[in-house]
Amino acid sequence: MEIYLLLKVLWWLLLGVLLMGVAIMVGMDMGVGTILRLVGRTDAERRVALNIIGPHWDGNQVWFILGGGAIFAAWPLIYATAFSGLYVVMLLLLWSMIVRPLGFEYRSKIDLPAWRSAWDWALFVSGFVPMLVFGAAVGNMLQGVPFRFEWNLASVYSGSFLSLLNPFAILCGLLAVSLSVYMGGAMLMNRGEDVLYRRAQRLVVRSGLVALALFSLGGIWVYFLDGYQLVQSPDPAIAQTPLQQVVERAVGGWLGNYQRTPLLWLIPFSVYATTLLGVAAARSGRSHLAWWLGALAWIGVIGTVGAAMFPFMMPSSLEPSHSLTVWNASSSQLTLTWMTGWSVVFVPLILWYTSWCFWVMRGKVNERDVASDEHAY
Q1: Torsion 239-241-244-250 (CA) sign
Q2: 69 contacts 21 by C-beta, under 8 angstroms
Q3: CA dihedral of residues 215, 218, 222, 228 (deg, nearest 10)
Q4: Distance CA 243, CA 325 (A)
Q5: Which of 50-59, 89-98, 212-221 is the most confident on average?
């Protein structure tokens, strides 16, 4: 039974890694879409920005697919509850991301200013909206989602789309957008030149400072927020359902893990350290270092939330004792065992070919190269 407990914790950690991959890699590409009209004042400059991420954006989507697949297989109760209750949000996320490949592929097909401007705005929407939804989803998890279970574990959702766009969720969404802008700007610094480089540099510095301010405000907000505490539950190493536990809410409850394990405070502290160092690196022109420090800042932000919420994954504001946790929402031991075996093979492979692609397609991109390449975006 101890193996089952270990597998549950392992897949909680792996889900965190996949969410970090989505935030860093997909967020970087979406950050470029968000700032496309700011860094590129002419059509040629915007084409350069798009071709900087052109070789990578579709490959980076693998992290998004892996994240959804991992939730579906490892945490089926969370997948079913979230996708049924948050259906409108999922559709918003889906449709905004569908526009993304269309913008890349169709933008340069017709040489008309109105046509290309329309696709520029489409790329902005497909970059800004998914990251806003990503952050807002985390904000809503911290507040709790209005759902409960019937006796047969059929979920009942009583919220609305507008209720999900509450002030705290929007704050978390803007934090995600600011970090994605940071990563996108750092990528443009890595491969851009001249005016594109300088504009991206300014955005990296500003978005990093904005992210720190939003992270600090969010931390203060969480301090006064009702957190969740697991009062009674079956042995974590056995199969169980959400109907077998007792959960209470308390102001500042999300700080419980930090109070019990003070070493965890190093995680939110790392966000301040890496972001400030990243801003300093960007200002001094060390764009590659700024990119890696931004990635560490993302890891720190997601790690801060994960450390606060553990073992909760999808708390219920409607019926706290029906909250979904690491212990009661996982798949069977057999399923997690098979998933672990395949992950040992494929996750390193994904990391290898992603790194290889970035290494092979390194170097600067300029207007002359884009204009002379008939296959360029």
Answers
A1: positive
A2: no
A3: -80
A4: 12
A5: 212-221
| Largest separation between any pair of C-alpha atoms in the chain | 66
- Residue 152 lies inside a defined structural domain of this protein: yes
377 part of a folded domain: no
Taking the model in full, what pTM does it have? 0.93
φ/ψ of 116, rounded to 5, equals -70, -35
> Which domain range does residue 20 map to?
2-371
| H or E element, residue 66 | helix 57-74
376 domain residue, yes or no: no
Tokens 């505490």 identify what position? 229
d(CA 285, CA 203): 13
Residues forming a β-bridge with 91: none
Mean pLDDT, residues 241-261: 92
* Within a domain: 217: yes
pLDDT value of residue 1? 57
Question: Do the Cβ atoms of 182 and 214 come closer than 8 Å?
Answer: no
- Split into its structural domains, the chain has a count of 1
Alpha-carbon distance of 223 to 161, in angstroms, equals 26
Q: Mind listing the pLDDT tens digit for each residue in 123-177?
A: 999 999 999 999 999 999 999 999 999 998 888 888 887 888 899 999 999 999 9
